[in-house]
Amino acid sequence: MKKGYWVVAYRRVADEATMKNYVALAGAALGLFGARLLVSPTSVVTALEAGRQQTTVVVEFDSYEVALAAYESADYKKALAALGPGVERDFRIAEGV
Q: Exposed, middle or buried: residue 26 (CB in 10 Å: 0-12, 13-18, 19+)?
């Protein structure tokens, strides 16, 4: 079974308190799905080519289907709502090889 990954680049974070609240809620929600943080918001990122220097997060799941289910879960939807309009991000769910 191929693993699933969330790849998230944060373009704008207007309020750090909002992010801390989201991280707490999201961490609890994703723990129910066996999520593993591979790249944390504090990791060093080097942008190359057309890339942008942005906070980047990568989360691994046991499968692509589990990654999708985690995103659609009620608990994660609560975390997502906590972000509000002050956070802009590029969010992708990808299937591993």
A: buried
